[in-house]
Amino acid sequence: MKCSSILASLICVLAGAPMALAQAAPNYTPPRTSWGAPDIQGFFSKASLTTMTRPETATGLIVSQEERDKLFNRNIYTRVAKEEASLSEAKLLTDANPDRAYNRFWMDPGADLGKIDGKYRSSWIVEPANGQIPYIKAPSNRRGLTADDEEYADRPSDNPEERGVGERCVYHGSGGPPLQNQMYNNVIQIVQSPTHVMILTEQIHEARIVNIGSTHGPAAVPKWGGDSIGHYEGNTLVVETTNVEPKQGGFISEKGKITERFSRANDGQLLYEYTIEDPTRYSQPWKAQMPLNVSEQPTYEYACHEGNYSMFNTLSGARAYEREGRKNGMRKEIFAGVAEAKE
């Protein structure tokens, strides 16, 4: 497969010393619900050019305006925007980027690096201090393929049921846990009741239900998004999630645990923090912080399965390969081409 370096980078986007947990603005009094819980309801955007792990070029967790400018200009979305700004509309609609899924117009990753306490962050990870995920064993993504790429590359294309759950619009995982910023559809909605909290993501409209004051269910029944129970500590909602459905992938296994904290930093922002503990995957627990900024827009429809042309094309391609005598051709040959383009 012939790919540009920009495309290869986009495919792989799937996404200093530790500092004390960020605090709410001085003298800020967070709102409370009618039943007395901290009110964290509303629409929020997690869009940002900051990534979960720290870029090699960043000097630390918090960066200056000058360093922010360098990270901003090196960001893949910034580079794509600059590249396409020089092209005419006719060129964009025809042969300007024949190998790219879609142009920058359709992407909505955010306009800047994320800020917490008014300071730019180079990564969401705050511990370990290097801003990297402390894997016990690095993922087997030879030549830089993501875990999802590897999963789909290994799957046959004989029928839809053999494809990945995200590809089939069963579960995407954008709602986590943990929540992650992405190429588009970064808005979430939080709704509270005295006994539950719902976290709805725009992408595929996945709704994670948090049971307040409850206990975990039986381990024999894994759940999409995991088994989430919550309680309030002062002005913070604390959510502990275990027993995730193994098929969903993500950052924790069915043996792992993630503890999330949601608190109002000010009227325009929630501070979202989480700690991941999974000794089957990581050499130590790791922590991250991310701002969830109040969104002026609600969540919009995400018609993942409307026509599902990509599924049709995948299966049609597999049938074509088979007619050529290449069994399950829509597999690693494709992703080998992506990897070669990266190199």
Total helical elements = 7
Hey, roughly how much beta strand do the residues contain?
15-25%
Overall morphology: globular
Mean pLDDT score: 82
User: How big is the Rg?
Assistant: 21 Å
DSSP strand count:
13
Helix share of residues?
Answer: 10-25%
Q: Describe the main β-sheet briefly.
A: 9 strands, mixed, barrel
Q: How many angstroms separate the termini?
A: 13 Å
Which strand order does the major sheet show? 1-6-7-8-9-10-11-12-13
Helix and strand succession? HEEHHHEEEHEEEEEEEEHH
Q: How many discrete domains?
A: 1
Structural class by helix and strand composition? alpha+beta
Which stretches are low in confidence, meaning pLDDT under 50 for 5 or more residues running? 1-22, 141-152, 329-343
Describe, in plain words, how this protein is organized in 3D.
The chain is α+β, with helices and mostly antiparallel strands and 343 residues long. It has seven helices and 13 strands. The radius of gyration is 21 Å and the shape is globular. It has one domain. A hairpin with a 2-residue loop joins strand 9 and strand 10. Helix 5 packs antiparallel against helix 7. The protein has a nine-stranded mixed beta barrel with strand order 1-6-7-8-9-10-11-12-13. 20% of the residues lie in helices and 22% in strands.
In short, what is this structure?
Helix content is 20%, strand content 22%. It is an alpha+beta fold and 343 residues long.
